[in-house]
Design a protein that fits this description.
heterodimer, A: about 400 residues, alpha+beta, ten-stranded mixed beta sheet, two-stranded antiparallel sheet, 12 helices, about 50% helix, B: about 230 residues, alpha/beta, six-stranded mixed beta sheet, four-stranded antiparallel beta sheet, 10 strands
Chain lengths: ~400, ~230
């Protein structure tokens, strides 16, 4: 006769309510795990999306995500000539704030040469960039439909396609535009700013008698180089060794070449590591809190049954029977709580502002942890139960 | 051979100056099918003797035998006390002590399942006993909704379901009115005799004294007679 099932059946309403409470707690643990995973996935999605083998960046930098990297956009021609390189193309990144209706949407602009490396891996609706100017492929997350005209800087872009799940390391939506548009967004200044800069340059020229004859207006267009990118994406021939090609580029072209794996490591270590650690720590604390709460619930449930356990001892129930009553109830509570938590998080994870990646592996590990927590928590109750004096069940008479 | 025998059973609580002798050289011997009462005022050691005999709280010194087996030899318990109680004893409490989350029938069947009998068989046997005790209509009811008399009858059924050699009852009628108390005692007597079990009933209720084979009187931890006066009360 299974005493745990009988007890749960008898106090079903209370047991379910308790399990819902535990489930809410576990849903928070699952959400934190999902946010943790989502943060990693978000951060890596932007590195993985172009499908490049190497990232050529400014020398002595960890660009373009962890540090600033600026390189000439025509460097790709030189890189393309390196043995083992099949394709090379510049890419530029920039954070901007889009105004859409009453909303301001932070967006990671990705500038690339349409038809070359660096574009979105897949467009879920609409089409990729076809024209070289004023078109944009946005991520679904921005919530802007195809066909919308979006003003940015001095330009107005038309949304021609949508991607899904490509966001920046901080979870912002991405917007693919042509490299030229990205460069203009980055370097084309407002008229006021251009006038101020020219006036400052003219003052500097006037102060130097040897240069006084030069005009700031004609000079500024020469000295201001806007043909810059943040990295050159490289795709290798199938037979080429990425490390060898990277070493060749670094030695002869004086730039840094990082494999995609290195780029992911840099991003994970430098950009999101602290946030990741913070979430991990919070997750551990939540699990500890869950352990304590489940232990307290099991302990209270055991205390409530003190007289019944004493009676069981008097009628000869072995400790195994009493222990299994508590262990099974603890596991039942954990299992039901886990089930509630899992259902809840699966119904709600899409509504979180940042990506919550619920992975089957993580859920399995958490289930294992919940089982371990329940076993641990039940030990407290079992210890208490085994210490109950059977005479408690009898009257106090002598 | 006695179903249960106690020789020079002494129980001392505490140590040094705070030492209390709750039971002093208690001697008793009860035959199978015999039903005896342990009577005495509060604090006379009746329940302590019951606890000692059932090894719930073993004595400090003395010897206890169940059938031909010495289960306590003055120094140590020589048997798994829980196994002894679930296989060879039935215990009835003053406050019934039914398990609240089991139905009446399950409360009784539980004792059988603890002895390794399958659920199905245990429930069948418990049902048969319920029919005999006219409790069939209360089988699926939880104890909380039973009357005191019904609860005690279920408790009696629980105590006898495993055909015990010894039935120990601690004030089984204390919480019942006279009529219900007598009915419970009658049931206990009949079942005890039919099953040839030695029945020891702790009581200080003079109303229930009829029908005992012997009565042991206790005062200040001592048995003041050897059951010889009991026949007069019968």
């Amino acid at each position: 006769m299974n005493l745990a099932i009988r007890d749960v059946k008898y106090r079903l309403g209370r047991f379910i309510l308790t399990a819902i409470g535990v489930g809410l707690l576990l849903a928070t643990v699952m959400a934190m795990g999902g946010i943790y995973r989502g943060m990693v996935e978000d951060a890596l999605s932007i590195v993985r999306a172009p499908g490049a083998d190497l990232w050529v960046v400014q020398k002595d930098t960890n660009g373009p995500f962890a540090e600033t990297s600026r390189i000439p956009d025509d460097l790709y021609r030189v890189v393309r000539a390196v043995r083992g390189v099949r394709e090379a193309s510049p890419i530029a990144f920039q954070s901007v704030q889009l105004e859409y209706g009453a909303k301001s949407i932070r967006t990671q602009i990705i500038g690339y040469r349409p038809g070359n490396l660096g574009g979105p891996p897949a467009v879920s609706s609409g089409r990729p960039l076809a024209a070289s100017r004023f078109e944009m492929v946005l991520d679904l997350k921005a919530g802007i439909p195809i066909g919308t005209r979006v003003p940015m800087g001095r330009m107005t872009f038309t949304v021609v396609g949508l991607t899904e799940g490509i966001v920046s390391s901080s979870g912002d939506s991405t917007a693919y535009v042509s490299l030229q548009d990205a460069q203009e967004l980055q370097f084309l200044k407002a008229n006021e700013a251009v006038r101020n800069e020219r006036a400052r340059l003219q003052a500097d020229l006037n102060a130097n008698p040897a240069l006084a004859a030069l005009s700031a207006t004609s000079l500024s267009s020469i000295i201001q180089n806007t043909n810059l990118a943040n990295a050159i994406l490289v795709r290798l021939e199938p037979w080429a060794d990425p490390n060898e090609v990277a070493a060749r580029i670094e030695r002869w072209n004086h730039y840094r070449a990082m494999t995609t794996v290195e780029q992911e490591e840099v991003l994970a270590k430098n950009v999101i590591e602290r946030a990741r650690q913070q979430i991990m720590l919070f997750r551990i604390i939540l699990l500890m809190v869950s352990t304590v709460i489940i232990a307290l619930i099991i302990f209270t449930m055991t205390m409530e049954k003190t007289r019944d356990i004493a009676t069981l001892k008097i009628i000869g129930a072995p400790n195994l029977k009493i222990g299994s009553l508590i262990l099974q109830e603890s596991l039942g509570l954990g299992f039901l709580g886990y089930l509630f938590g899992a259902v809840l998080i699966n119904l709600t994870y899409e509504y979180f502002p940042r990506r919550v990646a619920i992975l089957a592996f993580d859920q399995s590990v958490l289930f294992g942890i919940v089982v371990a927590i329940c076993v641990l928590a039940s030990l407290v109750g079992i210890r208490r139960a085994l210490a109950i004096d059977p005479t408690t069940a009898m009257g106090g008479g002598a | 051979m006695a179903a249960v025998a106690a020789q020079n059973v002494t129980k001392i609580f505490g140590q040094g100056d705070s030492q209390v002798v709750a039971l002093k050289d208690a001697q008793l011997s009860i035959e199978p099918g015999e039903i005896v009462a342990l009577m005495g005022p509060s604090g006379s050691g009746k329940t302590t003797l019951l606890r000692a005999l059932s090894l719930i709280d073993p004595p400090t010194t003395g010897q206890i035998a169940i059938g031909n087996e010495v289960v306590f030899d003055g120094e140590r318990v020589r048997i798994d006390d829980r196994k002894l109680r679930r296989q060879r004893m039935g215990i009835i409490f003053q406050a019934y002590n039914l398990i609240p989350f089991l139905t009446s029938l399950e409360n009784v069947a539980l004792v059988l399942t603890l002895n390794g009998i399958s659920n199905h068989e245990a429930l069948t046997r418990a049902s048969e006993l319920f029919m005999r005790l006219d409790l069939g209509h209360r089988a699926d009811i939880y104890p909380a909704t039973l009357s005191g008399g019904e609860q005690q009858r279920v408790a009696v059924a629980r105590a006898v379901i495993n055909d015990p050699a010894v039935i120990l009852a601690d004030e089984p009628t204390a919480a019942l009115d006279t009529e219900r108390g007598k009915a419970v005692m009658e049931l206990l007597r009949n079942l005890g005799r039919n099953q040839h079990a030695a029945v020891i009933v702790v009581t200080h209720d003079e109303r229930m004294i009829e029908g005992f084979d012997r009565v042991y009187h206790m005062i200040d931890g001592r048995i003041t007679n050897h059951g010889s006066e009991a026949k007069e009360n019968d």
